[in-house]
């Protein structure tokens, strides 16, 4: 499943259904009408206002958006505890963040529009929350805890790995000893955006070393944690299975007890008296514990799980009898996101709650605990609305079949998305043969699964046909030079600070927007030449796993270069901004540079990018001087080739280009100041020239508009004054030219403008299109599967209006995009049924 883009509706919107659940009264109202304007509800009941857009959901019940007060959205338990532990140790945060985004999407589509996320590592929850808030990822409103707080060796700490193998956690990670350290631990979490403070008052089930119910913090430590949380305006949630630690947490003034497995009646009565919420999840399946626990978990965990399973049923019955306020939470992440959330709501009913009480727990009660202006469908409240079939007060199982989800006035789910056709025909007036550089008329491509089954001839009978009309079918275009994990802004300082403050977990998720724009613009494959924190690798994995929309990616991770050069950071004092080292690509001497290559390859780089000359957008280095010695460049290229990877040289200057070419580089990127003898040597050796005309066009504009620092503006104007001449000379001399845009310097999604600029500067249209197809496919070492429309190749196809050789700028008006057989733009996109004309029988 791919993420659903929120449907932005014309305001006001009237949502109509047979019934509405009044969460305050715990009753059904008939019929139902809710009017939404912007992100708020403006009317409940009555008649739709004139001019409102009507959404009629028929025989359904409108509910307030459901809430889950205890989730772990950035993790999900699999069939093996050992495999889960290995994955958590090996995965980089940027990759794990992509999983978190998928779990968030599933949670939202299950009808949960808000979630309290009680503990995550590596700032995964921070990145996910920020990406959701900014509209880059669909997901529930998140109230996050960042790191849970607890004692050394306790449930908040890592399992007992040797400290010289797995580094230990410190106060900033939530591990504290003594009241002062525990206060500091709270402050660390608040600093990075915690909206709630989670602490481990007792042991836990899924940790290896601790008993499940023992106190793990002293009374003074709990007092300090709760006091500090409240001082910062945050609620405090205590993970607590045991009765004694629960009494201590209640005495400290905690706001909620999470789990509460072994709580006794007097403790529950104390909670009722003090207004402490009980979050009893995960709700146990009334059928009993799942089979095969001993196959999934080590024996110590199995023993604790069995003990908890025996005690929990009595506790939940006593809690209801005592009248404790029961908040709904599932500990999702232990169970499957999007499945366990509604499922556990039905189990609450089986444990004695009425359907209305269960729904109130997941709406009205959770809204109070989470501090959200939602939980009821009333005028002025946030427009978080879900719909379920039938009447959930008669059949609570309806909550497992959510058909409509609105969050903050935006529709994220409506009905069931039909399965797209697996085999279909694409037809148009023309087809671009990228090998020959000619147009074939008419154009026909048969897609079967992810591959092309036929090109030309007659359409097979009985399968859908998508007719693009007077258009040209082309292979999906390839961009050999992008920076897809970021995007420049006209405000240079603002972009600099925002980028510096973003965690890789946020950066890789925001990049999903850039990736989707790029794909919808007709780029089905892209080479990412530089990113920090493995944000590019994380995005690549998200796309490969089907979690994110975007082109297939070839990634370089950190670019390699010299201290103070274009690959290095800005010239801030090293005590202000941490300097980069060899692992981040900064090297001195051939041996270090070889090691820098190996670091990138270790973590999954597909190509090696190195900075052999200065750059335009760096603050201190001249744009054209060599920044690596011949020995360093040779070591970089040699090591890349030993690993069967290609090497790309960022290079504006001529002397630097000669160094890279002598080293055996595969491509020169930019090449603003190259001389004719250098271009001739590139042609002789088959070095591909990737000019990135778009990037220079963009920085020239910003320089003239005084939107760049003076030193950068001067370099931008110098490069712009020379690059067009270099490109024209290269084209005239027959240098192999690839298409690359340096997108990220300019805005993503407009990559095909590079074709227009190439043609404007003298390259024939057919050759410009070949640059972005067969040339780039070979440069990316993918010429056996992309770059042309041929049987057996991946079904990457785009359509542009008219005859593309007569009007090459038509590539900037892409009307159809198919990637790997899946239609992502045009008829049949986003899972919609293809409005098809059956092919005639031959």
Describe the structure.
The protein has about 850 residues and is of the alpha/beta class. It has 22 helices and 34 strands. The strands form eight sheets. A six-stranded mixed sheet has the order 3-2-7-15-16-17, with no helix packed on it.
What brief labels describe this structure?
842 residues; alpha/beta; 6-stranded mixed β-sheet; 22 helices; disordered N terminus; disordered C terminus
Write the layout of secondary structure elements.
Blueprint: E1 13-17, E2 19-22, E3 27-29, E4 32-37, E5 40-44, E6 53-56, E7 60-64, E8 66-71, H1 81-90, H2 93-109, E9 112-117, H3 124-133, E10 141-144, H4 179-191, E11 196-200, H5 219-231, E12 235-240, H6 243-252, E13 256-259, H7 265-274, E14 277-279, H8 293-296, H9 299-322, H10 340-350, H11 355-370, E15 385-389, E16 404-407, E17 410-414, E18 423-428, E19 430-433, E20 438-440, E21 443-448, E22 451-455, E23 465-467, E24 471-475, E25 477-482, H12 492-501, H13 504-520, E26 523-528, H14 535-544, E27 552-555, H15 590-602, E28 607-611, H16 630-642, E29 646-651, H17 654-663, E30 667-670, H18 676-685, E31 688-690, H19 693-704, H20 710-733, H21 753-760, H22 765-779, E32 797-801, E33 816-819, E34 822-825
Parallel strand pairs: 1-6, 2-7, 8-9, 9-10, 11-12, 12-13, 13-14, 18-23, 19-24, 25-26, 26-27, 28-29, 29-30, 30-31
Antiparallel strand pairs: 1-4, 2-3, 4-5, 7-15, 15-16, 16-17, 18-21, 19-20, 21-22, 24-32, 32-33, 33-34
């Amino acid at each position: 499943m791919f993420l659903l883009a929120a449907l932005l509706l014309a305001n006001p919107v009237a949502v109509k259904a047979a019934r509405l659940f009044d969460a305050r009264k715990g009753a059904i109202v008939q019929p139902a009408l809710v009017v939404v304007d912007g992100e708020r509800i403006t009317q409940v009941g009555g008649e739709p206002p004139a001019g409102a857009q009507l959404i009629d959901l028929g025989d359904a019940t409108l509910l307030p958006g459901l809430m889950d007060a205890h989730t772990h959205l950035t993790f999900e338990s699999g069939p093996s505890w050992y495999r889960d532990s290995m994955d958590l140790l090996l995965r980089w945060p940027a990759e794990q963040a992509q999983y978190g985004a998928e779990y968030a999407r599933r949670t939202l589509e299950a009808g949960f529009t808000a979630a309290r996320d009680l503990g995550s590592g590596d700032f995964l929850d921070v990145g996910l929350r920020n990406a959701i808030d900014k509209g880059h990822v669909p997901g529930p409103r998140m109230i996050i805890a960042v790191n849970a707080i607890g004692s050394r060796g306790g449930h908040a700490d890592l399992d007992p790995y040797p400290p010289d193998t797995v580094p230990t956690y410190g106060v900033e990670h939530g591990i504290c000893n003594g009241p002062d350290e525990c206060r500091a631990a709270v402050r660390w979490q608040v600093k990075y955006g915690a909206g709630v403070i989670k602490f481990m008052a007792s042991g836990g089930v899924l940790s290896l070393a601790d008993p499940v119910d023992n106190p793990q913090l002293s009374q003074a430590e709990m007092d300090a944690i709760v006091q500090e949380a409240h001082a910062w305006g945050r609620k405090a949630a205590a993970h607590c299975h045991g009765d004694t630690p629960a009494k201590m947490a209640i005495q400290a003034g905690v706001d909620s007890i999470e789990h509460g497995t072994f709580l006794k009646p007097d403790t529950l009565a104390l909670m009722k008296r003090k207004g402490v919420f009980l979050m009893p999840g995960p709700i146990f399946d009334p059928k009993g514990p799942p089979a095969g626990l001993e196959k999934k978990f080590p024996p110590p965990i199995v023993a604790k799980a069995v003990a908890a399973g025996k005690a929990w049923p009595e506790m939940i019955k006593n809690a209801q009898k005592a009248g404790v306020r029961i908040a709904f939470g599932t500990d999702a992440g232990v169970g499957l996101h999007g499945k366990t959330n509604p499922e556990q709501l039905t189990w609450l009913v089986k444990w004695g709650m009425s359907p209305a009480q269960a729904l109130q727990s997941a709406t009205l009660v959770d809204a109070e605990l989470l501090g959200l202006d939602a939980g009821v469908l009333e005028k002025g409240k946030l427009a978080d609305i879900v719909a379920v079939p039938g009447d959930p007060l008669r059949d609570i199982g309806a909550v497992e079949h959510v058909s409509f989800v609105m969050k903050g006035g935006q529709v994220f789910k409506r009905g069931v998305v039909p399965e797209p056709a697996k085999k279909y025909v694409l037809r148009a007036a023309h087809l671009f043969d990228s090998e020959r550089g000619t147009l074939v008329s008419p154009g026909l491509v048969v897609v079967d699964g992810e591959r092309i089954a036929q090109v030309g001839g007659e359409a097979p009978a009985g399968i859908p046909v998508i007719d693009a009309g007077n258009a040209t079918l082309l292979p999906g275009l390839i961009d050999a030079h992008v920076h897809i994990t970021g995007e420049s802004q006209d405000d240079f300082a603002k972009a600099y600070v925002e980028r510096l403050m973003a965690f890789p977990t946020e950066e890789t998720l925001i990049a999903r927007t850039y990736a989707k724009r790029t794909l919808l613009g007709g780029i089905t494959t892209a080479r990412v030449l530089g990113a920090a924190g493995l944000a590019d690798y994380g995005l690549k994995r998200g796309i490969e796993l089907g979690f994110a929309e975007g082109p297939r990616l070839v990634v370089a991770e950190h670019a390699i270069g010299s201290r103070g050069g274009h690959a290095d950071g800005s010239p801030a004092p090293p005590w202000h901004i941490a300097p980069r080292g060899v692992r981040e690509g900064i090297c001195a001497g051939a041996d270090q540079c070889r090691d820098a290559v190996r670091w990138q390859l270790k973590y999954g780089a597909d190509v090696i990018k190195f900075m052999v000359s200065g750059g335009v957008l760096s603050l201190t280095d001249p744009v054209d001087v060599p920044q690596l010695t011949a020995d360093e460049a040779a070591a970089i290229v040699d090591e890349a080739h030993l690993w069967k990877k290609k090497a790309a040289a960022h290079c504006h200057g001529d002397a630097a280009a000669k160094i890279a070419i002598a080293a055996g580089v595969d491509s020169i990127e930019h090449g603003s100041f190259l001389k004719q003898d250098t271009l001739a040597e590139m042609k002789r050796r088959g070095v591909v020239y990737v000019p990135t005309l778009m990037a220079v066009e963009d920085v020239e504009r910003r320089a003239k508009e005084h939107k760049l620092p003076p030193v950068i503006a001067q370099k931008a104007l110098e490069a712009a004054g020379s690059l067009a001449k270099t490109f024209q000379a290269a084209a005239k001399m027959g240098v192999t030219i690839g298409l690359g845009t340096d997108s990220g310097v300019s805005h993503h999604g407009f990559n095909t403008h590079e074709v227009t600029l190439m043609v404007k500067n003298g390259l024939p249209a057919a050759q410009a299109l070949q640059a972005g197809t067969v040339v780039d496919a070979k440069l990316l070492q993918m010429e056996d599967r992309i770059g042309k429309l041929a049987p057996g190749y991946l079904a990457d196809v785009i359509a542009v209006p008219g005859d593309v050789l007569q009007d090459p700028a038509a590539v900037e008006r892409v009307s159809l995009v198919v990637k790997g057989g899946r239609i992502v733009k045009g008829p049949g996109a986003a899972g919609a049924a293809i409005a098809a004309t059956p092919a005639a029988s031959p």
